[in-house]
Amino acid sequence: YAMLLSLIFLVVLVAAVVGFVFRHEIKTNFESNLNLALRDYNVTADRHSEAVDTIQRTLHCCGVQNYSDWERTEYFTQKGIPQSCCKSQDDCSEEDLKDLSKAKLKVFVDGCFFLVTSTMESKMSVVAGISFGIACFQLVGIILACCLSQYITNNQYEMV
């Protein structure tokens, strides 16, 4: 049992170190994937498009760096900026969303990449605290399992 807990502890420790070391690569991959999701955005039930809509609605952002990122997409030429960028759903018409100067007043202008990464970094201390607490419980479990094993081994020959 102690070896199993030690193995789990080491796997979690390695995952945390790898995540910390490669955090810049994770950001770069996220940005490129977000750019791809914008490029391939459509109104069908595509999970990437739904993820982009959810991020934009939840974080009140639009595009990767800013709302003008949509101008380079095929979706923009057909329908303009998506409705998920609108500050108020009632005040956003398709004509407004096709014109960037009008859309600037009606959509969120901040990009999603900065907001997502800053939100993740702000929650990182909570994740680290919870992980540290779980690691402490695992270490206590390892120590107690070793003590129990030692106690059973010592008392095995005295039971005659």
Automatic annotation (TrEMBL):
Keywords: Glycoprotein, Membrane, Signal, Transmembrane, Transmembrane helix. GO terms for cellular component: plasma membrane. Residues 1-19 form the signal peptide. Pfam families: Tetraspanin. CDD domains: TM4SF2_6_like_LEL (cd03161). Its main location: membrane. It comes from the Eukaryota. It is found in: Membrane. It is a multi-pass membrane protein. The keyword Glycoprotein applies. The chain crosses the membrane at residues 126-152. PANTHER family: TETRASPANIN (PTHR19282), TETRASPANIN-6 (PTHR19282:SF169). May be involved in cell proliferation and cell motility. This is Tetraspanin-7. It comes from Chunga burmeisteri (Black-legged seriema).
